[in-house]
Amino acid sequence: MTPDGIVQPGKGLVMERGAGVGEPSAEELIRLYRDMLLIRRFEEKAGQVYGTGLIGGFCHLYIGQEAVVVGLQACAAPGDSMVTSYRDHGHLLACGVDPKAVMAELMGRRTGCSAGKGGSMHMFDVAAGFFGGHGIVGAQVPVGTGLAFAHRYRGDGGLCLCCLGDGAINQGQVSEAFNMAALWSLPVLYAIENNRYGMGTSVERAMAGRAMSERGFAYGIPGREVDGMDVLAVRAAVAEAVAEIRAGGGPRILDMKTYRFRGHSMSDPASYRSREEVALMRSENDPIARLRARMLGEGAIDEAGLKEIDGALKAVVAEAIAFAEASPEPVPAELLTDVLAEGRG
Amino acid sequence: MTPDGIVQPGKGLVMERGAGVGEPSAEELIRLYRDMLLIRRFEEKAGQVYGTGLIGGFCHLYIGQEAVVVGLQACAAPGDSMVTSYRDHGHLLACGVDPKAVMAELMGRRTGCSAGKGGSMHMFDVAAGFFGGHGIVGAQVPVGTGLAFAHRYRGDGGLCLCCLGDGAINQGQVSEAFNMAALWSLPVLYAIENNRYGMGTSVERAMAGRAMSERGFAYGIPGREVDGMDVLAVRAAVAEAVAEIRAGGGPRILDMKTYRFRGHSMSDPASYRSREEVALMRSENDPIARLRARMLGEGAIDEAGLKEIDGALKAVVAEAIAFAEASPEPVPAELLTDVLAEGRG
Amino acid sequence: MEQVRQTVREALRDAMAEEMRRDPGVFLMGEEVGQYQGAYKVSQGLLDEFGPRRVVDTPISEIGFTGIGVGAAFGGLRPIVEFMSFNFSMQAIDQVINSAAKTRYMSGGRIGCPIVFRGPNGAAARVAAQHSQCFASWYAHCPGLKVVAPWSAADAKGLLKAAIRDPDPVIFLENELLYGRSFDVPDDPDFLLPIGKAVIERPGRDVTIVAFSRMVDVALDAAGILLRDDGIDAEVINLRTLRPLDVPTLVASVTRTNRLVSVEEGWPTAGVGAEIAALMMEHAFDALDAPVLRVTGADVPLPYAANLEKLAIPQPDDVVAAVRSVCHRA
Amino acid sequence: MEQVRQTVREALRDAMAEEMRRDPGVFLMGEEVGQYQGAYKVSQGLLDEFGPRRVVDTPISEIGFTGIGVGAAFGGLRPIVEFMSFNFSMQAIDQVINSAAKTRYMSGGRIGCPIVFRGPNGAAARVAAQHSQCFASWYAHCPGLKVVAPWSAADAKGLLKAAIRDPDPVIFLENELLYGRSFDVPDDPDFLLPIGKAVIERPGRDVTIVAFSRMVDVALDAAGILLRDDGIDAEVINLRTLRPLDVPTLVASVTRTNRLVSVEEGWPTAGVGAEIAALMMEHAFDALDAPVLRVTGADVPLPYAANLEKLAIPQPDDVVAAVRSVCHRA
Ligand SMILES: Cc1ncc(C[n+]2csc(CCOP(=O)(O)OP(=O)(O)O)c2C)c(N)n1
Ligand SMILES: Cc1ncc(C[n+]2csc(CCOP(=O)(O)OP(=O)(O)O)c2C)c(N)n1
Ligand SMILES: [Mg+2]
Ligand SMILES: [Mg+2]
User: Fold this and answer.
1) What is the best residue among D60, D83, D85 to mutate for testing ligand 1's pocket, by most ligand atoms within 8 Å of CB?
2) What is the pLDDT of residues B139-161, one digit of tens each?
3) Measured from the CB, is residue D40 less than 6 Å from ligand 1?
4) Which residues of chain B are within 8 Å of residue A220 when distances are taken between CB atoms?
5) Are C314 and B337 in contact (CB under 8 A)?
6) Closest to A100 (Cα-Cα) out of A338, A330, A327
7) Which listed residue, of A5, A305, B9, D46, carries a Cα 20 to 30 Å from D186's Cα?
8) pLDDT band at residue A344 under the 50/70/90 scheme
């Protein structure tokens, strides 16, 4: 546990929600940095642990895309909701879910945030405002739109941050959801995490026509492109969109240009993109390195401070792993619980 | 049987396909008129027969929309294909299918174009290039796109005329099909028969955003609005679009502004639109009346000629009804045939 | 209890109206449910009473609005999603199964999905293959769902109210041909029927006939014929719920009658009748004096022609023949 | 006949390649089938040999490309549509059922739909509830389809080739865990297996175990244990086709053994095992010395945790227990 309570589940771990308005203070820069780095360190370890067999099935790492969810959550307010695809570990962490619970879920343990039953792709934490973790490409988009419907129905002032991939944009249910969100002016931000590929298919091979940001134009949904590798650009674009949405302006689309540094999942031939392309993105366009450079340049932090953060986060992740490894699997009787509400004694 | 062989199934009944290029001759005007009027008279009778109980289930009349399919078929070439929704009687007739076979199908007779097994919504005539008659809103759009795929795959120079309703535009599978048609530059014309309502829901209550003709813009599909109550405007717009498609330009969308004069199906409370609205459309914007006025104005035909056509068509329809009524139901053994190819002895 | 005479249609509407009055989180969404008053007039008057916030007309976007319903349920509301017919639920079935049914389990119980999917299921009159499929067996197959299929107006009322109050997703299979039928219904806003319980509509000693939805009529008609013509006293069980099936009631009945015929209008293969036959094997093998027979819809897409349609759907005579077969056998 | 040793993956690929060489109308479409060589490498090399005209990478638009496949089949081509997994066929199931399966019937035989839908079905390893559903029973329920579920590489090759040549829509359920398994396969480009015929993988006298797809392994393992530990000589039937089921082979076997246990990894309710139980009632009631028992996947969405996953999927011991139960009963 670091001095600032970094491992407390669900609070303190990530910045206060709604902080992302105005120019970021030095302190906020540090929090953004820390939040991104937590995801990075967590995912690196998850990848390693996968190799040992302690994590199974599909596991989609978020490395490279950290600025997107951290920038989104920087502008979220308490009571807002978030959904995303199966590539969800970073989102859970950014929502403030305890890394222990996420790692334990990855290992299929009783202490996991889905009690070990969901695994990498199916994590939930309603208290943290995170409504999954959806394994079916595009399915979270109507679901997120429904969360927005609920916000509006209740008049709770909340909105839904609904993340989807560039591949998901070609799912018909996404178009249907866009149309209804616009028709009913629902409070939802569609954040396209455009990492250029859906599995091995580049955006150009999957999508005809205009820019992704314009996919909502037919429905009257404003959209714009965002440098998704610059957490401050993300934060600024999201802040603006969120303000418009909260003011009753209806849905918004942000096309976040990002990149995944790793394969689609743990088995990926990577034949669809060149080593050079990946290497260049890693060296020139790493969202964490970019923020680090800026912070150092502005004097918001020094090398020692960076090192301290990194050390603390590594400790958090190590602790999460230790916790998960030490956690028991679900008891066999759990096989039959949670199918229905009454199944739980 | 009229002198010009009007009741011969599948040929002569409607104009030569591909005739719709250039300024229409007087003869072509007459054919367009006759083709529209055949549909009108057929549908009027179908509505009456429905009242007697000889036709059952859902029955969606095409009255008011005749200019759309007749204008489309005016530009079709042999080998082209067509699909539409359940509102398909007019399309069959415009494809040259024998009215007897259509009426017999409506009555569920063995001689029907689907052997009595499909009914109003599920009619097919492959020889005539008509691939259904689809009861699921929007489903014909991927199917039609697949027919276009087959045209391109075989290199047969054909294209698919794919009709859909304004309500169907909000089906996700339509968006998916648009994207793939554009991505693969398929020879398909999407003709939206925009009769302003999907059942009781007006376009405004179902569709957010921009004009329907722009629903393909995101995919790079050109689209334009057409006065769907003016068969010559339809013919001209389709001719242009079809030429572009045949030249390899990929899909096109035409938003045909039309109107149905009757209810959605045979049971329709009609509470969603005013009597005045309907009356005005009928009196001011009947596609058949409009063409008639033009023909008379141009001297392409006189009242006697019109009367003769009407008489001939009424005879055709009467004959279709007599034929259908005299036709037997399928034999009981037909219950179990046609499930699979080998089911047929 | 005081009874009122009402149609199934009215019972369904009253069930929704009462639950909407009771719980502000309950809302109805679907195609033509509002301004049009429902394609089959089931939601007549609801828009007037509850307004467009709670009676939501949707575009023809089944998977989209189903997913929106699921999200709204995750978000704490209690949506009633109407499919204009269950045939169109196929477009949305991924959201029904993967999002609604599986999420409680996948989340280790952290999140529930209290939602009702309702609408007419199975054959109506002459609407042919694409509009006549019975989805009873598909949905009954899937854990995480409850599947209800009312027959009478009282079933409709008591079960729909229970479904709306249920914390889990409920598939509520109505039947268009029953909408206009009248039955007695208890006059009580708290009248609920338990999901998971079958009811004996007609007690009998000689054979058990199991049916659901409109086939209860067919079973009762058959029972009448059997008594009159054969002196066979058939017990008719109305399943009411297809998932979970009320196995104790079925076993108790067959233990008395030693014979069972199931009736459904859906296709035979892996249908509800197959499940019942398998259950009787497992739970009542020694009680069976004859094989469980299935009367089902013909194994074909439903034909349009009037004569073929009738042949394709179970008629009382088909049930009579099956019962005679199991009764003459022992 | 000459045999070659190959994996199920290779057999599937060879089946497609041979049929594509034979018939220029055959093409493959789906997500990642081309440039990526198949998400599970089943289409390895096909893009190289046949080019992008016949090996078509699609966007993640299942209902769209399924409908396109159906339209192409109506238009005279012979599409093979790959679902990256059959879970995603739920998005497209309306096109599969309403357009592909029903159209021949609805058109009175005027139009056919020769199309193959293939991909991995059921549980893989630890991919949890949304990626592990078994669709055997759903598809087997529906007339107008043929449903095939190969186990060995020879099954895969002979049945896939037959499916591609078939004039009707065929659902071809593969299993990811079998892709890497090697078997002997006849070395003959005209090797076909008949759709609709089961095969006895292991003859036996005492009990019939019926399985399909990967569960054939489980059944064979169980048979080994039973012989060794109990002296029970089990006959193992590999169904190969789920629609139409090979009833004569099942009845003939059970007429000899008088006992039957079915094994499937899907959910129990209205599953393939239920159908088999019902069929045995109807066709072999008097031959049965014990109830037909079903070994099935647990009636839950598949859990992720390794221990729970194992509990949820039938293991040889589960089959052994069921067989012992039916054998000790008579
Ligand atoms: C409906 C559906 N089809 C296919 C898949 C298999 N699949 C999983 S991830 C994926 C690619 C998604 O790409 P994208 O939306 O760009 O998200 P990313 O993985 O890049 O984050 C595919 C095809 C799926 N899970 N769901
Ligand atoms: C997927 C689906 N949802 C709902 C229906 C019920 N339905 C039949 S027609 C119709 C309205 C369609 O309107 P539109 O596309 O405008 O065509 P129109 O009837 O005006 O020709 C609806 C909702 C259906 N057949 N299929
Ligand atoms: Mg992507
Ligand atoms: Mg319309």
Assistant:
1) D60
2) 999 999 999 999 999 999 999 99
3) no
4) 208-210
5) no
6) A327
7) D46
8) low
pLDDT of residue B20: 55
Q: Give the C-alpha separation, A273 to A96, whole Å.
A: 33
Average pLDDT value over all residues in chain B: 93
Q: Helices (H), strands (E): how many in chain D?
A: 12, 14
Q: How confident is the model at residue A21 (pLDDT cuts 50, 70, 90)?
A: low
Which stretches of chain B sit within 8 Å of chain A by CB? 170-176, 178-180, 182-183, 205-210, 214-215, 217-221
The model's confidence at residue A2, banded by pLDDT at 50, 70 and 90, is: very low
Amino acid identity, position C19: E
A205 lines ligand 1 (CB under 6 A): no
Which range (A19-28, B132-141, C20-29, C268-277) has the least confidence?
Answer: A19-28
C-beta of residue B143 within 8 angstroms of C-beta of residue D99: yes
How far is residue B132's CA from residue B140's CA, in Å, rounded to a whole number? 8
Query: From residue D89, how far is each of B198, D165, D171 by CA, in Å?
Result: 28, 22, 10
Provide, as residue numbers in chain C, all residues whose Cβ is less than 8 Å from the Cβ of B135: 128, 130-131
Per-residue pLDDT reduced to its tens digit, D14-56: 999 999 999 999 999 999 999 999 999 999 999 999 999 999 9
Q: Please, what is the angle between helix B26-52 and helix B99-106, to 10°?
A: 20
C62 is catalytic: yes
| C81/C171 Cα distance (integer angstroms) | 10
B85 within 8 A of D98, measured Cβ to Cβ? no
DSSP helix/strand/coil, D95: helix
DSSP string, B41-89: HHHHHHHHHHHHTSS-S-----TT-HHHHHHHHTT--TT-EEEEES--H
**How much is the pLDDT for B13?**
41
For residue A197, the surrounding DSSP H or E stretch is strand A197-198
Mean pLDDT throughout A301-319?
Answer: 98
Which residue owns the Cα nearest ligand 2 atom 21? Answer: B165
Mutate to test the pocket of ligand 1, among A120, A122, A137, A205 (most ligand atoms within 8 A of CB): A137
**Range 68-87 of B in CB contact (< 8 A) with D:** 81, 83
B275/chain D closest Cα distance in angstroms: 36
pTM value is: 0.97
> pLDDT over 70 for what percent of chain B?
93
Q: Stretch B165-190: mean pLDDT, rounded?
A: 98
What mean pLDDT comes out for the span C44-52?
98
3-state secondary structure (DSSP) of residue B184: coil
Confidence of residue B59 (pLDDT cuts 50, 70, 90): very high
Say how far residue A343 (Cα) sits from the centre of its chain: 31
Q: Which of D62, D82, D176, D275 is catalytic?
A: D62
CA of B223 to the centre of ligand 3 (A): 29
Check pLDDT > 70 for residue A149: yes
Count Cα neighbours of B224 within 13 Å in the Cβ-side half-sphere: 9
How remote is the CA of residue A69 from the centroid of ligand 3, in Å?
14
Residues of B in contact with D27 (CB under 8 A): 153
- Is A140 within 8 Å of A151 (Cβ atoms)? no
Residues 6+ apart with CB under 8 A from A320: A42, A45, A98, A99, A100, A102, A103, A104
Distance CA B334, CA D253 (A): 33
Which chain D residues touch B183 with a CB distance below 8 Å?
A: 59
Is a pLDDT exceeding 50 seen at residue D63? yes
